[in-house]
Amino acid sequence: VQHSRRAFLSLASGLALSGIARPATSSETLPAWLVSYREPSSRLIGAALSDTFAWRRLAELTDTFGPRLSGSPALEDAIRWALRQMRTDGLDHVRGEPVMVTHWVRGEESLDVLSPYPSRVAMLGLGNSVGTPREGIEAPLVVVSGFEELESRRAEVAGSIVLINVPYTDYFSTVGYRTTSASRAGRVGAVAALVRSVGLDGLRTPHTGVTTYQSDGPRIPAAAVSVEDASRLARLAARGPVRLRLVMGAQMLPDAQSSNIVAEISGREKPDEIVVVGAHFDSWDVGTGAIDDGGGCIVTWEALRLMRALNLRPRRTVRLVLFVNEENGLRGALAYRDQHKSELSNHVLMLESDSGVFRPRGFGFTGTPDARDTLESIALLLSHVGADRIGPSGGGPDIGPSVAMAQIPAMSLETDESKYFLYHHTAADTVDKLDALDMARCAAAVAIVAYVVADLPQRLGQPAGTQ
Ligand SMILES: [Zn+2]
User: Fold this and answer.
1) pLDDT attached to residue 465
2) β-strands 137-144, 243-248: how paired?
3) pTM for this one?
4) Residues 6+ apart with CB under 8 A from 286
5) In the prediction, which pLDDT does 29 show?
């Protein structure tokens, strides 16, 4: 998608004329307590949608620093850049909070068919995988259609490079093949494990992602091959013997020093009560981590920047947390929980964006029925950005550990995810896949939820009239 700034501004001002200038929802349909929030909400929407700032900031981040794998110099340089930008934005208490992160490096890698006829396979090693010896591993290929066949053909699998060729259905049903195949194949004697990429059919694009070794089993190298290559390998193997050579320079290095990025709009009345919004700042080392999850970082950051620019300071503190090491360690999420243990009970709400910043639909929410009622009312303010749906469950990997420890109400930004798993963890995860107006809508939606929840006279989930 190309973004013509003029076309964008005329679209945005068209929206302003058709809706934003008018009250978003007539006062008759809003609960009385919500009426005073209509005006600041309209200002937040107007400020977000009249500019392409969010998209341009994401483009600058991803064009300049590229992918931000934990342990990489690019991640640390990007963190320093973000901290500088946040200070320039005028946010409060901008700081890095130290985290030791996983430091895995991919190295050089390749997968070749040696026979029946030489050819190269489109592949990506899986994150946290061990490497091969320098000269690689040469072995016959065995293709299986799942774990049952892996077990039933274990005699053939022993000594082979096994491809676990399971078609993608949806992420959560299929991702287990990526995370567990190396251990399962290793246990039946395979010398390396290949998985069919976990993602929508693309253009011969392999998808990386983390793999996990069971502590008691052998650690064999693991890689994903593109959907097209998985199908071709399966056809070749059905015709006769296939021999492969896998070379992976992957290495796990000692943990590296990094930081979660934290910034705030300090509350004007109850600064110790906190609404957290956030996303993860690290990414895989292919593509530029624009969709996963640079966009989530920028739209949650925008919530604070917009409040600051409009001089909106809610009663409670709104805190932005950009976590590190979500992809291959989750250390940022764990460090936040441990470093903020004593104040987790003062966390009123945690909101995460890690499903892309496409056209927003609303938010998932997990919490009490009373809190849900309040959020469903607040969502009335989001109809003009199309984000007024409050779905049955919310949360995310980075807020998860804190939410679980202190039973904090949890939200996740929900967007049109139809293309998310096309780009997820691939070289095609770049900013041009995202639309500036959709990002602006996401930013406005996050800003309004964060502002209103932080400003309510009563704490979210408490009856009105209580403090
Ligand atoms: Zn992510």
Assistant:
1) 64
2) antiparallel
3) 0.93
4) 67, 124, 208, 425, 426, 427, 429
5) 83
| CA atoms 331, 336, 339, 344: torsion sign | negative
Q: Which of 437, 358, 434 is nearest to 52 (CA)?
A: 437
Greatest alpha-carbon span in the chain = 77
Token couple for 241: 């013997």
Ion ligand 1, residues whose Cβ is below 5 A away:
292-293, 354
Instruction: Compute, in angstroms, the gap from residue 188 CA to the centroid of ligand 1.
Output: 32
The alpha carbon of 16 and the centre of ligand 1 are apart by a number of angstroms equal to 32
Could you tell me which residues are beta bridge partners of residue 246?
111, 137
SS3 18: helix
Task: Using the CB atoms, write b or e for 222-252: b if 16+ within 10 Å.
Answer: bbbbbbbbbebbbebbeeeebbbbbbbebeb
- Cα atoms in the Cβ-side hemisphere of radius 13 Å centred on 42: 18
State both tokens at 138.
Answer: 């040469």
- d(CA 391, ligand 1 centre) in Å: 20
d(CA 211, CA 196): 13
Rounded-to-integer distance, Cα 79 and Cα 93, Å: 15
From start to end of 305-401, where are the E strands? 316-323, 347-352, 360-366, 389-391
Q: What are phi and psi of 257, to 5 degrees?
A: -80, 130
Please answer whether residues 397 and 321 qualify as being in contact, where contact means their C-beta atoms are separated by less than 8 angstroms.
no
The separation between the first and the last C-alpha atoms of the chain, rounded to the nearest angstrom, is 47
pLDDT, one tens digit per residue, over 347-402 is: 999 999 999 999 999 999 999 999 999 999 999 999 999 999 999 999 999 999 99
DSSP, residue by residue, 103-161 = EEE--SEEEEEEESS-EEE-EEEPBT-----TT-EEEEEEEESSHHHHHHTHHHHTTSE
- Indicate the helix (H) or strand (E) that contains 244: strand 243-248
| Residues forming the active site | 326
Peptide bond preceding 457: is omega within 30 degrees of 0, i.e. cis?
Answer: no
**Residue 307 parent element (H or E):** helix 295-309
Give which of 316, 313, 267, 268 is closest to 456, Cα–Cα.
Answer: 316
Q: Which residue has the tokens 């963190």?
A: 79
Place of tokens 């980075």: 398
CA 55 / ligand 1 centre spacing (Å): 18
**Half-sphere exposure of residue 304: CA atoms within 13 angstroms, side-chain side:** 31
In the predicted model, residues of the chain with pLDDT beneath 50 are 1-24
E-strand ranges in 340-442 read: 347-352, 360-366, 389-391, 410-415
